[in-house]
Amino acid sequence: MQKGLSNHLETLKSLWKSEPFQLGIPVIDLQHIWLVHILVELEEKILEADESGEAVDVQPSFKNALDYVSEHFALEEEILEQFSYPEYDAHVKGHRQFVEKLTEKFYEAENSQVAALGLLQILKNWLFKHILYDDRDYGDFFNSANVDLKSFCNSLLKSGKYPISKEQLLFYQNIVQVDSNQGNSLNLQTQTIDTVQEIQNIWKTYNLETGIPIIDLQHIWLLKMIVDLDHAVKAGVPSKETFQKIMNSAIDYTKNHFNVEDQIMRYFRYTDTANHTNQHKRFIEFIKLRNDEFKMGNPRAGLHLVQDLRNWLLSHIAFEDKKIGLAFRTRVRELSEFTKKMHKKGEVTILVEQKKLYKLVVKSDQELDA
After folding, report:
1. Distance (Å, rounded) from C-alpha 370 to C-alpha 368?
2. Helix segments in 19-87, DSSP class H
3. Cα–Cα distance list, 260 to 87, 201, 215 (Å)
4. Does the global pTM surpass 0.90?
5. Cα–Cα distance, 175 to 108 (Å, whole number)
6. Residue 262 predicted with pLDDT over 90
């Protein structure tokens, strides 16, 4: 084991043992350890930046935080709902409040140093208040309840709905010192996650629904692009064909999606149309920049595009587009009729695959109003 990784694991062990974090639910403990890892990694980056006087690259830490909360919250909520945990609603509310703080800090951050310090503070506060108190409560509930938690968690892991990376498993085994012969242990093993489930996790955790079906459909398609490209980046430098395919999809997305939003805002006289369309223009510039990077042979172009798309998810969709949904929440029927007319005129393209993914993610059997 490399010295840097060894020192990092020792720091994680020390922090993990400093408070009663362990709940005795292996899959939950593993994911909590991953949160501690994200926190410690960010602290190390800030300290290194302070010593060198260089700026902090906070984007990877934000990406890790986004991955963590979407996967962990979805898993935890499914477990609590399955066993009718009495404080389920309050617990979910705590998750949503954390996500709001995380996205707000990202949205308001003016530079990487401020973003890094803000994220670190949020993670620290939530780590001690939520895990040590709220999560401890449901841990006590399961310890006293006569439920087969082990079998249910094993079934969730076998389903492939929730991923465990090799690195996460390594950290868990080293910090908790897992004994596979113990009766209360789970057969944790590395997995891949179903793309639809991953999209559902992000969609649910960040409460991205605007209430306008055509806009939600297009946002879900963007999430698919993010997930597909992220998988390709994690597997290595994306091939020219993979990157170009996703880049073409992103360009088509901007043309179709921005046209829909722009027409809706202008027709229904949205008060913040000018600012919103300016943000659209900046996003188009980002897409063009990443495309140029890739054509010039920059091997990090794929990673940069993933970061740009995730930034857009947090800073624009989770905030600005939700404002549109709130502004027109009493005019849903009018909006449906308007988007139907756009579709009939050929002003918006809706693919069969997009409709199918929309229904899978929102779990709706209703026909899309467009």
Report:
1. 6
2. 26-52, 59-82
3. 41, 25, 8
4. no
5. 35
6. yes
